[in-house]
Amino acid sequence: MERGDSVKIAKAFQWTVGILLTIGGLLMLLPFVWMILSSFKLEAEVKQIPPTLWPQQFTLENFRNLFDNMAFGVYLKNTLIIVLFSFIGLFLNAMAGYGFAKFHFKGRGVLFYLVLATMMIPGQVTMIPVYLILNQLHLTNSMAGIVLPGLVGAFSIFLFRQFMTTIPDELLEATRLDGAGEFRTFLQIVLPISTPILAVQAILTFIGGWNSFLWPLIVANDEKLYTLSVGLSLLKGQNESQFALQMAGSAFMVVPIIFIFIIFQKYIIDNYTISGIK
Questions:
Q1: Mean residue pLDDT across the chain
Q2: Could you list the residue ranges that cross the membrane (predicted)?
Q3: Side-chain half-sphere CA neighbours of 88 within 13 A
Q4: Residue 241 burial by CB count (10 A; 0-12/13-18/19+): exposed, middle or buried?
């Protein structure tokens, strides 16, 4: 076989694979696109057979109904509070990772392994003890009781520690010699260098806070403390036949996560690239 024929066969194979992957990607996107478009449809159009992809008449009535009649404004406020405190916890995780990576103190190794050991305990196992502790502190059915148990996490501390160990000690020493304190060194030197891992952790933190469901449902007895995920579950249970309303609620939950991922995907790719080089 001549070289020209081999090149043609390789190009044909690449085109075939590309076409198949494109078709597969479009098929995977179709339910998501249909959900988004259905949230702007009237209820009658969502239920009609055969179904339509593009709305015959765009309407925001479903979203207005979510906030006017389903208390989604309260759920959104609670979810944003949880996300805010989750990012505060992310900052604390970064500080803990920096401490384990760059500070030498007695018992550092043992303490770090104890932190790692907590990753082996399923969250469902600790829910009852944590709930009992919060109950003794009179923090159940409160936003503090929802936020505090998830403020820090062993996995996040581990990732920050592993990344920050690669920061040269000479760079930190030079900063200290210039008169910078430890906190300033952390803010102005360590955090900017750690942008890739910060971006990855920011996405995971946002998704975890935005999708908070089980713990708020356990701790909170008052509907005024429910999150969007809990509200969406209530929406599906109380309005089983209103599919357009359910599509609007689902779209409202999913779309922000998509935007966050699009914004931070560059840093995720950079992080994988840096990890591969290391």
A1: 85
A2: 12-37, 79-98, 110-134, 146-164, 185-207, 243-264
A3: 11
A4: exposed
